[in-house]
Design goal:
- The complex is a heterodimer of chains A (about 300) and B (about 800).
- Chain A has about 300 residues and is α/β, with parallel strands linked by helices.
- Helices cover about 30% and strands about 20% of the residues of chain A.
- Chain A has helices at about 60-65, 90-95, 110-115, 120-125, 140-155, 170-175, 190-200, 205-215, 235-245, 260-265, 280-290; strands at about 5-15, 25-30, 50, 70-75, 80, 100-105, 105-110, 130-135, 160-165, 180-185, 220-225, 250-255.
- Chain A has an 8-stranded mixed sheet.
- Chain B is α/β, with parallel strands linked by helices and about 800 residues long.
- The chains are: A alpha/beta (about 300), B alpha/beta (about 800).
């Protein structure tokens, strides 16, 4: 199989929250869902995009001059990119010596990715860690992620797939061959709410749980806890019942945070959940207890 | 057999009312600059003019111990102090930066620690010290050596000091570890008997100069040890007097016990834990009165102290809670050590006394050394939040896992980089290369900041010089001239604009460095000889194995492994140097920037050349697991090691190379202009030796550690790696285990040392703005700890800016 190139927006070493042990997380670009709370907005589009970090901009204006599409403007060290006209040619990135403009996402060969993830193999070995594919959604690049996992296994590195579960079952089955652990996102058990917030219904996602279970691969469910969206006790109970039904042991809660807020500005996108309050520790703890009452293990923050 | 830790150990309350009051008294205490030690030293020296050096030094020490004012403070159970104040500082009048001290005194504001710590000084004390300075200055080794060096080699060394090509290390000697176990188990009277026996066995017929010197040395040992015994008895007498006046019955009993204890120890073997602690403390303190300076290591505290605790527990004489309180009191006592900031040393070590306690590790026969006291001690450190002594955990693969978890929890809760982690495997590999048998090597520990020694068989008198790699780079780029002063302080190695290859530049740099190091070693060999002819430490030497046997002072190479550990040379600024070389290699020799443009930009401190600065900043940087730059570091390690090891020291051993740096990243950084790594002029350099330059490690801690582990560290006496973490994920057991794996992996690959500042940036910023709210906030800077609010503002900024890894 020719895996082609992967579109990767980050390879994060020393990841502690994406599965057991010390891990390297490979972030794939492209996602079929449109969750407004996403803390990686650069992960949505499956192509490299220009982003701007205004704090680094010195207002020199070189980018404005070089942009053929006239899509870029700078005033008072604040950059604006007209995304309708920008074709991500990257000329502005080349001239921006302050590093304020840069590409989010990069085409990488399998060899390049492996070369990076192999470097921490001693840490994986000592900590029971490995490589996690995350995103975005790595299953939108199935050939690449499959090849990456295969290569990891060849080198004795454990693998984990962090997925939203929204993919064709056949594709999932293909990739699962070299997966040791699934981090399976559950957003909401009510399909209409699910669709309202993420843009897709949840039937396919729930069906795919079965696909994974049949393969006998361990699952850790993860619920991104969004205030007013999916944080009701009812929804948490429904998730727990699903886990129990499939004989799984663990649901982690990922409390809502705004760490990704600045990235929306980098991409000239509005943040639709502005003003949303984060949960208190007590609120999260309460939901954790609900999950634990089903005999499930519940971690907070992954 | 698996270690079983009594559950009481982890439940102790160290901060009892008594300990809290003592800590509060310490925090509230003014620091007094005291004249007594100087006055007594001067009087004694005048009285003994015609006598042999060792005897003179012993009598000087005796005079100090007899005459220095003493006090027992409210609620204390372990007694002893450098002065009668809770915080008092003595001056090493015999060897200090005379002009600098004189100036400081005349300003009326002697600095004790960093520039923010000014001591109280009475007019009498001021006049007294000024007089003593006049007496000592012409007689001091420091004066003699400068005079000699000028006659030998003109102003070379002065010029280097001025340009800060090198730093000032010709000061009173620091760095020693007594055989505390021997003091506790046998008492100082056993050491006196040993010396007596040596004297009685002297063969008179063979009485030559060497024999006579030995005789004087042993006599000096006897005088010194007796002086310490009598010094303890002064505390016994004082306690008795106070007891007689004391109304409170409980306190009276305590004072009587203090009197009884100080009558018995350190002269005799300690009979219980309490006596052992007192015996240790007073003999340790006395060491500090012989040489009022730094880097005296308490050593393998849990190993030599534990048998006393165990015995008392088994006999039901003490509870863990009582033991914990005593440890708390000892920790506060340790905090009370201060000294006069003299010369550059005050910025360099930022008030830390560089005392090192090493716990865990392995026993002499290679078993895990962790015991209940290791736990109890860490718990005490965690609760008291003290920064002095440094606590070093010797890691090995067989270490008790519960203890390791406790160490990480302590690191998390203490917040100040305590404990630091050291790798037994790496240290043993280095130490045994010097033909130290493995059994002796196993009682190793770090001395000063991080340099390894097989204590107590060796002394590492940390007076070897540091040299400023980045100043040498600047000089190379300006054909021998220091661009800051315009003065020629290096060799003529050619205009770098004419160099046609990166290799040519490297050759020029090596030539400059070679010349500096070669001459620097000559200079310090001269210094070592002059020092041992003018200065001696009979008491400190008596406690170090080998000196009595050889009949020689530790400064004369008398310790069992003296010649192996007396001379360390210390290159500093590795990271900025290799980053700079990598940037030049890439931009000038592989890409399109000309050397001319680069030099212009450096001269302009990047003003108007920001574009180039950003390109330089974007070049490969150390600490990112990038072979492009890591391979330059590997080469640098190798040839700077060879430079040192090819040279003899005065005692028949070789020079070593060590890579650490106190706060020299700041001291040296102040004189280094803009660098090709993109760093702007006069800013701090990178700290430690293998940590990443702040803000340049973009790939997280595993990449930093991988870079450092690629280097062959087994040729150096120390490397130093700092990482900063925020405490978030260390709350869970899982997070702690990951942290331990991180350390283990670095150590599997023969990394030597790492320490973690687990703090939030927010905390530090707030602390900088409101120092009064953070008086007990501790941070660890380049291998040692200090109260954050004591640090110079620039150092504070630097700590704040260090990349924060999230764990």
């Amino acid at each position: 199989m020719n895996e082609g190139k992967g579109n990767i927006f980050n390879i994060q070493r020393f990841s502690l929250q994406d599965g057991p042990g010390i891990r390297t997380t490979v972030f794939f670009k492209g996602c079929p869902l449109r969750c407004p709370w996403c803390s990686n907005p650069e992960s949505i589009n499956p192509w490299p995009e220009v982003g701007h970090r205004d704090s680094l901009c010195n207002g020199c204006g070189l980018c404005v001059d070089i942009c053929e599409a006239k899509a870029i403007s700078v005033s008072d060290k604040t950059i604006r990119i007209d995304r309708e006209n920008c074709n991500n040619c990257g000329k502005c990135v080349e001239v921006c010596y302050t590093g304020a403009l840069r590409f989010l996402g990069k085409e990488m060969t399998l060899e390049e990715v492996v070369e990076e993830v192999i470097r921490d193999q001693a840490y994986y070995r000592n900590s029971g860690g490995g490589v996690t594919a995350s995103g975005g959604e790595s299953l939108v690049q199935p050939a690449f992620v499959k090849a990456l996992f295969k290569e990891c296994h060849k080198k004795g590195i454990p693998t984990a797939l962090d997925t939203c579960g929204y993919t064709k079952p056949d594709i999932l089955r293909e990739v699962l061959e070299d997966v040791d652990l699934i981090l399976y996102d559950l957003k909401c058990m009510d399909s209409s709410i699910h669709e309202k917030f993420t843009g897709v219904p949840n039937q396919l996602i729930l069906r795919n749980v079965d696909v994974v279970v049949r393969r006998g691969i361990a699952i850790i469910f993860r619920i991104p806890l969004i205030p007013g969206v999916n944080d009701s006790e009812n929804n948490i109970r429904a998730c727990a019942e699903l886990a129990v039904k499939f004989g799984e042991k663990q649901i982690d809660l990922l409390p809502y945070h705004k760490y990704g807020l600045n990235k929306y500005a980098m991409l000239d996108r509005p943040y639709k959940l502005d003003g949303l309050q984060t949960h208190s520790n007590e609120e999260v703890e309460k939901l954790k207890q609900v999950i634990e009452s089903y005999g499930l293990h519940c971690g907070i923050g992954g | 057999m698996a270690l079983k830790v009594d559950e009481q150990v982890n439940k102790v309350n160290v901060l009892t009312e008594r300990v809290r009051k003592r800590k509060e008294a310490y925090l509230a205490a003014e620091v007094h600059a005291c004249a007594d030690r100087s006055r007594l030293a001067t009087e004694s020296w005048k009285e003994t003019e015609e006598q042999p050096l060792a005897i003179r030094r012993a009598k000087l020490f005796k005079k100090i111990l007899e005459g220095i004012p003493i006090a027992i403070h409210e609620g204390e159970l372990i007694v002893g102090g450098q002065t009668q104040y809770v915080r008092g500082a003595n001056l090493d009048i015999e060897m200090c930066s005379y002009d600098d001290i004189r100036q400081m005194l005349q300003s009326g504001k002697p600095i004790v620690k960093s520039p923010t710590q000014v001591a109280t000084l009475t007019e009498d004390a001021k006049q007294s010290i000024l007089q003593d300075l006049d007496y000592w200055q012409p007689r001091s080794s420091v004066t003699v050596v400068y005079d000699t060096l000028r006659r030998l080699w003109g102003n070379t060394h002065d010029d280097w000091l001025e340009a800060r090509v090198v730093n000032e290390q010709m000061q009173s000697p620091t760095g020693r570890t007594g055989n505390w176990g021997k003091v506790l188990n046998e008492g100082l009277s056993a050491i006196i008997s040993e010396a007596r026996e040596k004297i009685s066995n002297l063969k008179l017929k063979a009485f030559d100069n060497g024999q006579l010197d030995k005789f004087y040395f042993w006599e000096a040992v006897i005088i010194a040890c007796e002086a310490v015994i009598n010094y303890a008895k002064r505390y016994a007498d004082l306690a008795r007097e106070m007891a007689a006046e004391e109304k409170d019955e409980t306190r009276r009993a305590e004072l009587e016990r203090i009197a009884e204890t100080c009558d018995w120890v350190p002269a005799n073997p300690a009979r219980n834990f309490y006596e052992a602690l007192q015996s240790f403390f007073i003999s340790f303190l006395a060491n500090n009165l012989e040489v009022a300076s730094k880097a005296e290591a308490p050593g393998l505290f849990d190993q030599y102290m534990y048998p006393f605790l165990r015995k008392d527990i088994e006999a039901g004489r003490i509870t863990y809670q009582e033991a914990a309180e005593l440890l708390g009191l000892l920790l506060v006592k340790w905090l009370e050590f201060d000294d006069f900031g003299t010369g550059e040393r005050r910025t360099r070590s930022q008030g830390s006394q560089l005392m090192n306690v090493a716990i865990a590790g392995v026993t002499e026969d290679g078993r895990d050394a962790v015991n209940e006291l290791s736990f109890l001690f860490l718990e005490a450190v965690r609760q008291v939040k003290s920064h002095q002594p440094h606590v070093s955990v010797r890691y090995h693969d067989g270490i008790d896992l519960e203890f390791m978890i406790k160490a990480v929890e302590t690191n998390r809760d203490h917040g100040g980089g305590i404990p630091a982690f050291f790798n037994d495997k790496a240290a043993l590999a280095v130490i045994t290369q010097k033909n130290v048998p493995i059994r002796e090597a196993r009682s190793w520990g770090p001395q000063g900041c991080v340099e390894m020694v097989p204590y107590p068989n060796a002394v590492l008198v940390t007076s070897g010089p540091f040299y400023n790699l980045n100043k040498i780079l600047e000089i190379t780029l300006h054909n021998g001239v220091d661009p800051r002063t315009g003065k020629k302080v290096g060799l003529t190695t050619g205009d770098p604009r004419d160099f046609t290859s990166f290799e040519e530049l490297c050759e020029a740099f090596k030539k400059q460095t070679d010349w500096v190091v070669d001459k620097l070693i000559d200079i310090y060999n001269v210094w070592f000889v002059i020092r041992q002819n003018n200065y001696a430490m009979p008491y400190s030497s008596a406690l170090v194995d080998g000196c009595i046997e050889s009949g020689k002072d530790m400064l004369a190479g008398g310790a069992r492994w003296g010649k192996e550990y007396l001379a360390n040379i210390r290159p500093f600024g590795h990271q900025n140097l290799v980053n700079s070389l990598a940037a030049i290699k890439k931009l000038v020799y592989e890409e399109r920037v000309s050397m001319d443009e680069l030099l212009d930009a450096l001269t302009a401190n990047f003003e108007g050349r920001e574009n180039l600065q950003h390109m330089l900043l974007a070049a490969p940087k150390w600490g990112n697991d990038d072979d492009y730059v890591d391979s330059i570091m590997r080469d640098l390690f190798r040839w700077t090691e060879d430079l040192a090891k090819s040279r003899d020291n005065p005692w028949g051993g070789k020079w070593n190379v060590s890579r650490q740096g106190l706060t020299l990243h700041y001291v040296f950084g102040q004189v280094v202009g803009a660098l090709p790594d993109g760093r702007k002029a006069w800013e701090a350099l990178a700290d430690g030796s293998v940590s990443a330059m702040r803000g340049t490690d973009m790939k997280g801690p595993t990449a930093v550690l991988n870079s450092a582990a690629k280097i062959d560290q087994l040729g150096s006496e120390a490397t130093l790696l700092n990482l900063k973490f925020d405490p978030g994920s260390l709350q869970s057991r899982e997070g702690i285990n990951k942290f331990i794996s991180l350390i283990k992996t670095y150590f599997d690959n023969y990394g030597y040392h790492c320490q973690f500042n687990i703090l939030s940036q927010k905390t530090l910023l707030d602390a900088k703005a409101h120092p009064e709210r953070y008086r007990d906030l501790v941070v660890r800077v380049a291998g040692f700890s200090a109260f954050f609010v004591d640090l110079a503002p620039e150092v504070q900024d630097e700590i704040i800016a260090r990349t924060e890894h999230s764990i």
